[in-house]
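Might I ask for a little of your time on a matter of protein folding? Here, with my thanks, is the record as I have it:
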Amino acid sequence: MPVVASDFPDLRSIVLENDVGLLCKPADPASIAGAVRQLLNEPAPQRLARRQRCRQLATSTYCWERESETLLRLYGHSSKILV
């Protein structure tokens, strides 16, 4: 599902580089509503393309199988520091 994300640097890069949604000012209800409205009013082909990119990223990049590798490396590295 395409996303409306807060316009923070890390989220911005993911959303814009992958074209999976829109950004909003998190403390501005009008900005949030405008982004949601814009997504809902996108033409069907554009909406479907975003949806497909979201699904592909969720199954290949932003999934537990991939993210767990980073987490385990971090814990492995941290445990060596603590010993």
Q: What stands out?
A: Residues 3-82 form one domain. The two ends are 43 Å apart (CA to CA).
